[in-house]
């Protein structure tokens, strides 16, 4: 996270303050074990059971880095102490799970599953760069004075049924409940200092984030179905999967509430609450959410020609996400998109011309001032040749070197006054890659 040659070192009017950089160190360790077993109870019934354990430890600290004032004097805004962002953070998971698959008859298959997971998180006391700035001392004292250990008892469940009507039609439908506990940054990012908030962004939107130790696990309830029409030999196939998900305690964000007296240094204030078209300070919060959409996919032969066997395959995805508490659109939702590929096979050759189409992203998260992106289309070329056990793959991505902005690529914050909130321009999305050539080889033995 330190400065590179393309960053701005001097802040303010010349000669200004020289910013020496912002060194940030992170160390994480994960240890764990997993045990699984599959038991054939009868010819029709299979039981799968298992357990998992994972211990995760994280330290995230920022060594002091005093700025240099005109005349050679030093300014201790980022000194003299080490800033402890996450100190002795722990996230331990222990789980037991079981799954029962039953083939009732040739037409019906069912699957029932359950998982219990105990997630324990904790973090040690923290400190800022110094005790003079309220964004460090007040926040650190409040964080250290409270109990930080949290234990979540999470349950997952799955119920699935598959009906095979005949050799060309299959229907699968089911329900799933999935639970996710907050990660360490969502719970334990503690400082209300503006710069520290901005350094705790792990979602790519350029905003600053404050954690909340009292965040609850989010729980998603999903109903879905898959309708599968196909040839007996799968020479052609079409699938449609509609789904609906309701999430309780969804971990979204709200504008950070803080002191209006020091809104440039502390998160919150009137300006932060009403700001548009700029980066803002946020705090993770449990809210209610709803997502629904449909996935379509398929392939079909076009015919046999002198150039080989021609075919067509494609997929289309649509998702809508909404915060039920605020009515806002959810962050980082992919708009309507599709891929269509013309395939050609002859001997060991397997080639394709792919068209990628993405609709403009105009449904964005207002609380985050998420950036809208225009729609685009790309052309990719793919090819491979297989000879005995060897295979060579090659291709060209973005054949016409088109400038485009992936809707889930996030905000570009890479140049300028990167240590000054809104000192960098808002509203620039991260562009996609230009023309890219690739090749690879594999050998099976």
What is the first-to-last residue Cα distance? 43 Å
Structural class computed from helices and strand pairing: mainly beta
CATH superfamily of the largest domain: TonB-dependent receptor, beta-barrel domain
CATH architecture of the largest domain: Beta Barrel
Largest sheet: 16 strands, mixed
Q: What spatial form do the alpha-carbon principal axes imply?
A: globular
In round numbers, the mean pLDDT is 92
How many helices in DSSP terms?
Answer: 4
- The ordered string of helix (H) and strand (E) elements is EEEEEEEEHEEHHEEEHEEEEEEE
| CATH overall fold name of the largest domain | Maltoporin, Chain A
Report helical residue fraction. under 10%
* Total count of domains: 2
* Top CATH class of the largest domain: Mainly Beta
Strand content: over 45%
Radius of gyration: 27 Å
Report the uncertain regions.
259-265
Number of strands: 20
Verbal overview:
With 445 residues, this protein is mainly β. The protein has 2 domains: 1-23 and 65-80, no CATH class; 35-62 and 82-353 and 363-373, Maltoporin, Chain A (Beta Barrel), CATH 2.40.170. The protein is 6% helix and 52% strand. The protein is built from 4 helices and 20 strands. The strands form 3 sheets. The chain has a 16-stranded mixed sheet that branches. A two-stranded antiparallel sheet has the order 1-2. The longest helix is centred in the N-terminal third of the chain and has 12 residues, at 134-145. The protein is globular and about 80 Å long. The two termini are 43 Å apart. Residues 259-265 have low confidence and may be disordered.
């Amino acid at each position: 996270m330190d400065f590179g040659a393309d960053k701005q070192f001097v802040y303010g009017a010349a000669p200004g303050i020289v910013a020496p950089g912002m060194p940030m160190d992170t160390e994480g360790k994960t240890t764990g074990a997993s045990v699984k077993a599959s038991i054939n109870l009868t010819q029709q019934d299979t039981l799968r059971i298992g357990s998992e354990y994972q211990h995760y430890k994280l330290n995230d600290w920022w060594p002091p880095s005093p700025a240099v004032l005109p005349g050679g004097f030093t300014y201790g805004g980022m000194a003299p102490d080490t800033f402890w962002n996450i100190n002795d953070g722990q996230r331990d998971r222990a789980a037991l799970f079981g799954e029962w698959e039953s083939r009732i008859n040739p037409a019906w298959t069912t699957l029932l599953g359950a998982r219990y997971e105990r997630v324990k998180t904790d973090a040690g006391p923290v400190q800022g760069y110094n005790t003079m700035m309220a964004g460090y001392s007040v926040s650190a004292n409040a964080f250290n004075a409270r109990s930080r250990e949290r234990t979540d008892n999470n349950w997952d469940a799955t119920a699935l049924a598959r009906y095979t009507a005949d050799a060309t039609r299959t229907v699968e439908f089911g329900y799933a409940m999935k639970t996710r506990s907050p990660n360490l940054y969502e719970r334990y990012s503690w400082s209300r200092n503006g710069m520290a908030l901005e350094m705790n962004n792990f979602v790519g939107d350029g905003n600053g984030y404050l954690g909340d130790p009292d965040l609850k696990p989010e729980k998603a309830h999903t109903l879905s179905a898959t309708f599968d029409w196909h040839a007996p030999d799968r020479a052609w196939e079409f699938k449609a999967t509609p789904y609906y998900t309701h999430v309780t305690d969804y971990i979204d964000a709200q504008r950070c509430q803080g002191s209006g007296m020091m809104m440039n240094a502390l998160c919150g204030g009137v300006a932060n609450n009403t700001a548009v078209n700029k980066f803002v300070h946020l705090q993770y919060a449990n809210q209610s959410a709803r997502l629904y959409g449909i996935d379509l996919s398929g392939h079909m032969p076009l015919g046999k020609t002198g150039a080989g066997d021609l075919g067509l395959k494609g997929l289309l995805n649509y998702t809508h996400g909404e915060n039920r508490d605020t009515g806002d659109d959810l962050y980082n939702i992919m708009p309507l998109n599709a891929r269509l590929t013309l395939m050609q096979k002859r001997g060991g050759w397997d080639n394709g011309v792919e068209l990628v189409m993405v609709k403009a992203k105009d449904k964005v998260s207002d609380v985050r001032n998420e950036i809208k992106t225009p729609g685009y289309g790309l052309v990719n070329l793919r090819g491979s040749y297989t000879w005995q056990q060897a295979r060579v793959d090659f291709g060209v991505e973005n054949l016409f070197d088109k400038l485009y902005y992936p809707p889930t690529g996030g905000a570009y914050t890479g140049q300028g006054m990167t240590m000054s909130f809104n000192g960098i321009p808002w509203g620039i999305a991260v562009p996609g890659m230009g023309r890219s050539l690739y090749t690879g080889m594999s050998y099976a033995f």
